[in-house]
């Protein structure tokens, strides 16, 4: 029998044992009762109680006959009386007649018989002559007793009959109980046999299962790639798997019986491990027991130390505690991990390089664009001939198109960084749609295309969404349809879906459609269509990919259904819950006709051209402007003078804008609480967030425009835009700036030809000169300088040398253009 039976089996076995014991005891008692009853019956037959009573009556009758005839000698008659007398005495005292004596009727008759004897004894005791003389009296007494003896015999017969019936019934009942008990015992024995047979089968199956489990475990242990070491409570090894042999270099025979700490733990760590083992032996605990996987150092047979992953579990064997350690060689894993880390670092470095490149290019491109678009905005306010006005408008359009391309790339970067800002506000989708249609109508007219839009079903004007993102998505999708449709129709529809919180906008065109291959990639980056399209239309191939990113960021979907020669249908679905119409109805504050509350503004900018351009725009708006050419100077000025607003460039020598902003905020100067607005070409999300963390309240992305400056003024200071029609070109300021630019650039071109100049200095000065060149509308020269600056930052000495070789000639050409402007 197994030592560890399940509780149910133990209960069944206990109950079966109890039932069997009860059955055995019952059978023993019943058998004893049957034997006793049989002995009683046997004893009754041996005593011949019933025969004795009948014989007593016979003897009485013999005596009565002798008395009646009196033909026998007196001695014979007396002897017959003595026999009858002794028979009655026996009936009165024998145990066998106890049952008869307890019967009232029998007891009465027996008493009468005894009385007869008592009365007859005196006569029987007389001498023969006297006895004979009393024969008549004796004969009368005998006649009186005759009835008594008959009744005595008859009553005994009835009593004995009843007693015999009762005994037979008792024996029958006892036999029945005995049979029942034997059947119960037989049933219990049969149940026990069946149960024991089942236990035997279960034990055989359990033994077979245990053998199979042991076989499997041994197979697992022997084939496991992880080493398995089993040790006892004292730390002695009792099992050492094949994998452990391969890992540590010991054979199982060499390892078994040895101390596990001295065998596989490096020498400099053994004391700590032995302290843990001693604490464990003393009844304490080890932190590594049942603590999951952990990494430690182990030692091979040759003494080399290597990393392993260790997991220790406890178990019991023969009432003693054992420890099972699973060890995995991590040499290859650590090497692979290091390769992954290196690959990750390389990927992160590449990502950072890409981000830095985008930030740098944003700065490099936006800085000259700042000068270009800013000066164009100022020139628009001067007296221009119609051709000049047209040229300036074309230049402004081209510049803004370039700015849009830059913004597209930066938007992708924001999205991939997971920092695309979403601002959900109430918006009028109908007004937004009409503005987009109006914006694209001119392009549609140039291609003789009809452009229209309308609601399907009940209109819903005011909804909750991000108007800027929705506008960009719809402009990209609609402009794409207009661009590829020539002499056809573009129809835009808006519809509130049954879900009641989504709006679907469909853009259908009658253009050439797309092939299945192009359809699969139409939302990918830089997909511009097939070559036939490329000959007729342009674009960067980013519009639809950016649109899809923005739609996804807003929680919507965008799909296309198209076929070659059958046009295209773009469906854009936005979550747009209904919104209440704002009180201001999106009306912007109107500018007062007269200046109000001029501001004292500090502009901290290292680029002279950009600094002067910002000053001219702000002064034209009626404000007072102070300047600082680097962050350190700006901090000093802000400490001593209280300004209403500070414009802070980010990339500056001596001290950058972020450091300057922190120092102004942390100091106790007069402008410590003045709003600071970042001026930067670095438009990445992480940069904008860091500017706010440094204490700046807003960021103005270059190129600077008058509208942008005034909008920031309104938002930051709550001061309406101040109007002034004066321009820098109505004063000699522009001419002075031009002369200064030429002088500074002459100096730079001469200085940069000096041998062995540090590339970092060349990069900084070339970048600064490029910004000024862009502002003064010499784009070829500005591009040349930007290329030199980029090559210098990349430590590309050959490219820098090549660029510097042609720089004087390009500068001479640029100066001639500046002379023509004058």
Automatic annotation (TrEMBL):
Residues modified as 4-aspartylphosphate are: 649
Could you tell me the membrane topology recorded for this protein? Multi-pass membrane protein
Q: Which UniProt keywords apply?
A: ATP-binding, Cell membrane, Membrane, Nucleotide-binding, Phosphoprotein, Transmembrane, Transmembrane helix, Two-component regulatory system
Cellular component GO terms held in the UniProt record: plasma membrane
User: Which ranges form a coiled coil?
Assistant: none
> Which InterPro entries does the record associate with it?
CheY-like_superfamily (IPR011006), HATPase_C_sf (IPR036890), HATPase_dom (IPR003594), His_kinase_dom (IPR005467), HisK_dim/P_dom (IPR003661), HisK_dim/P_sf (IPR036097), HPT_dom_sf (IPR036641), PAS (IPR000014)
GO MF, any single term? ATP binding
Q: What class of enzyme is it?
A: transferase
Q: One matching Pfam family, short form? A: HATPase_c
Superkingdom of this protein's organism: Bacteria
Its name, as the record gives it, is: histidine kinase
- Source organism per entry reads Yoonia ponticola
């Amino acid at each position: 029998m197994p030592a560890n039976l399940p509780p149910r089996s133990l209960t069944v076995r206990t109950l079966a044992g109890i039932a069997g014991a009860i059955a055995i005891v019952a059978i023993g008692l019943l058998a004893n009762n049957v034997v006793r009853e049989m002995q009683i019956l046997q004893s009754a037959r041996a005593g011949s109680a019933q025969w004795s009573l009948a014989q007593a009556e016979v003897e009485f009758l013999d005596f009565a006959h002798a008395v009646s005839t009196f033909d026998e000698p007196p001695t014979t008659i007396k002897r017959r009386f003595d026999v009858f007398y002794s028979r009655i005495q026996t009936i009165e005292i024998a145990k066998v007649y106890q049952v008869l004596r307890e019967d009232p009727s029998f007891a009465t008759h027996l008493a009468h018989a005894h009385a007869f004897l008592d009365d007859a004894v005196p006569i029987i005791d007389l001498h023969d002559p006297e006895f004979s003389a009393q024969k008549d009296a004796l004969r009368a007494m005998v006649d009186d007793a005759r009835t008594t003896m008959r009744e005595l015999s008859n009553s005994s017969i009835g009593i004995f009959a009843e007693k015999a019936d009762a005994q037979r019934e008792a024996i029958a009942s006892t036999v029945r109980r005995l049979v029942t008990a034997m059947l119960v015992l037989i049933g219990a024995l049969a149940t026990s046999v069946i149960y024991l047979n089942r236990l035997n089968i279960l034990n055989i199956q359990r033994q077979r299962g245990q053998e199979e489990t042991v076989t499997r475990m041994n197979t697992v242990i022997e084939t496991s790639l992880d080493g398995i070491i089993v040790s006892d409570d004292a730390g002695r090894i009792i099992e050492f798997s094949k994998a452990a042999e391969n890992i540590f270099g010991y054979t199982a025979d060499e390892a078994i019986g040895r101390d596990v700490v001295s065998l596989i733990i490096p020498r400099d760590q053994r004391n700590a491990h032995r302290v843990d083992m001693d604490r464990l032996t003393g009844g304490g605990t080890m932190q590594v027991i049942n603590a999951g996987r952990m990494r430690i150092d182990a030692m091979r047979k040759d003494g080399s130390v290597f990393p392993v992953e260790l997991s220790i579990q406890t178990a019991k064997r023969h009432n003693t505690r054992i420890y099972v350690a699973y060890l995995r060689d991590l040499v290859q894993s650590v090497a692979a991990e290091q390769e992954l880390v290196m690959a990750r670092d390389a990927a992160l470095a590449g990502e950072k390089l890409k981000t830095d490149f985008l930030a740098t290019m944003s700065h490099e491109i936006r800085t000259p664009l700042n000068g270009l678009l800013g000066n164009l905005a100022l020139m628009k306010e001067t007296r221009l001939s119609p051709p000049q006005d047209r040229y300036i408008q074309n230049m402004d359009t081209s510049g803004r198109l370039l700015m849009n391309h830059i913004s597209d790339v930066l938007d992708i970067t924001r999205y991939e960084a997971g920092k695309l800002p979403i601002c959900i506000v109430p918006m009028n989708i109908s007004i937004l749609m009409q503005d987009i249609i109006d914006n694209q109508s001119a392009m549609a007219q140039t291609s003789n295309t009809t452009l229209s839009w309308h609601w399907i079903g009940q209109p819903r004007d005011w909804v909750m969404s991000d108007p800027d993102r929705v506008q960009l998505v719809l402009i990209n999708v609609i402009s794409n349809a207009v661009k590829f449709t020539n002499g056809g129709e573009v129809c835009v529809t808006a519809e509130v879906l049954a879900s009641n919180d989504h709006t679907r906008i469909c853009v259908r065109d009658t253009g050439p459609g797309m092939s299945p291959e192009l359809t699969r990639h139409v939302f990918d980056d830089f997909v511009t269509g097939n070559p036939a399209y490329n000959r007729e239309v342009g674009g960067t191939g980013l519009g639809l990919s950016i649109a899809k990113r923005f739609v996804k960021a807003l929680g919507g979907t965008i799909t296309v259904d198209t076929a070659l020669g059958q046009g295209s249908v773009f469906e854009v679905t936005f979550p747009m819950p209904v919104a209440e119409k704002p009180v201001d109805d999106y009306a912007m504050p109107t500018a007062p006709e007269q200046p109000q509350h001029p501001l004292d503004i500090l502009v901290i900018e290292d680029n002279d051209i950009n600094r002067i351009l910002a000053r001219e725009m702000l002064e034209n708006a009626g404000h007072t402007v102070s300047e600082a050419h680097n962050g350190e100077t700006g901090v000093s000025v802000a400490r001593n003078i209280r300004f209403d607003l500070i414009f802070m460039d980010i990339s500056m020598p001596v001290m950058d804008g972020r450091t300057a902003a922190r120092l102004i905020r942390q100091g106790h100067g007069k402008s410590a609480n003045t709003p600071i607005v970042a001026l930067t070409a670095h438009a990445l999300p992480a940069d904008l967030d860091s500017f706010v963390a440094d204490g700046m309240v807003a960021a103005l992305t270059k190129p600077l425009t008058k509208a942008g400056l005034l909008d920031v003024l309104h938002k930051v200071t709550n001061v309406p835009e101040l109007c002034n029609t004066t321009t820098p070109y109505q004063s000699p300021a522009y001419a002075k700036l031009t002369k200064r630019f030429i002088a500074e650039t002459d100096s730079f071109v001469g200085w940069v030809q000096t041998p062995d100049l540090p590339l970092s200095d060349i990069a900084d000065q070339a970048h600064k000169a490029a910004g000024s060149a862009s502002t003064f509308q010499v784009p070829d020269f500005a591009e040349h300088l930007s290329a030199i600056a980029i090559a210098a930052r990349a430590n590309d000495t050959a490219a820098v040398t090549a660029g510097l070789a042609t720089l004087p000639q390009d500068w001479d050409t640029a100066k001639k253009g500046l002379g023509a402007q004058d």
